[in-house]
Amino acid sequence: LTTLHLLGNQISADGAKAIATALMTNQTLTTLQLEYNQISADGAKAIATALMTNQTLTTLHLGLNEISADGAETIATALMTNQ
Per the structure, how many domains does the chain have? Predict the structure, then answer.
């Protein structure tokens, strides 16, 4: 599995945290689409933590969620440390 589309699935912070946990060890997923969900800043922070270690994800779509400026800043910081 290299691409996962989860658009409009009402994924909340808890769902985003579960996805983030999987991303920490996943070595095949390159594209993750999470638009049109209910991911909050807490969910975005969990995803950001996963991005710090994930080495395969190259495309992440988070449009039209509720991540807030704080969540976006956390993701941006994570992307600066991602290798």
Answer: 1
